[in-house]
Amino acid sequence: HVQLVESGGGAVQAGELLTISCAASGATFEGADIAWYRHTPESECDLVGTLSRNGQTVVVDSVNARFSISRNIGKDTVYLQMNALRPEDTAEYYCAATRIAGFPAVSRFPPETVCRTNFAAWGQGTQVTVS
Q1: Would you state the pLDDT for residue 74?
Q2: φ/ψ (deg, to 5) at 87
Q3: Which one, out of 32, 67, 68, 91, has a CA that is 20 to 30 A from the CA of 56?
Q4: Residue 69 and residue 78: Cα distance in Å, rounded?
Q5: Where in 1-131 does DSSP place strands (E)?
Q6: How many CA within 13 A on the CB side of residue 52?
Q7: Strand pairing of 57-59 and 77-82?
Q8: By three-state DSSP, how is residue 77 classified?
Q9: pLDDT value, residue 118
Q10: Percent of the chain beyond pLDDT 90?
Q11: What is the 8-class DSSP label of residue 105?
């Protein structure tokens, strides 16, 4: 039984840097495909970026050069590093994973979805508020 637990969210001032984490237990991230999404009351659950099983990362154009994704395989943890935060980055952030714990591979992570839909394993979300 896999659990993904996110941490590191909070309230920050515009222009600051924040890194949030997603840790897996009950299964390993080794071989998994991982994504970060974010949700606000005004938006769908929108894709932020992906980290593929071979370590390649992609972030959406709107945050490119400000956000990056990394992993620590030994700790079964992935990170979303957010630099130069803006008020419009305020959202609840979620991690999701496929190729893990029986969740099959997908051809791509959808750019918009419902958070915590059952095609993937999801974390509980962590709130980031930028003012």
Answers
A1: 87
A2: -55, -35
A3: 91
A4: 7
A5: 3-7, 10-12, 18-25, 33-39, 45-51, 57-59, 67-72, 77-82, 91-98, 112-113, 121-122, 126-130
A6: 10
A7: unpaired
A8: strand
A9: 94
A10: 92
A11: P
CA distance 25 to 108: 24
What are the backbone angles phi and psi of residue 14, rounded to the nearest 5°? -55, 140
Side chain identity at residue 44, one-letter code? E
Contact between 41 and 53 under an 8 Å Cβ cutoff? The reply is: no
* Cα–Cα dist 72/104, whole Å: 22
CA gap 55, 95 in Å, rounded: 16
pLDDT tens digits, one per residue of 21-39:
999 999 999 999 999 999 9
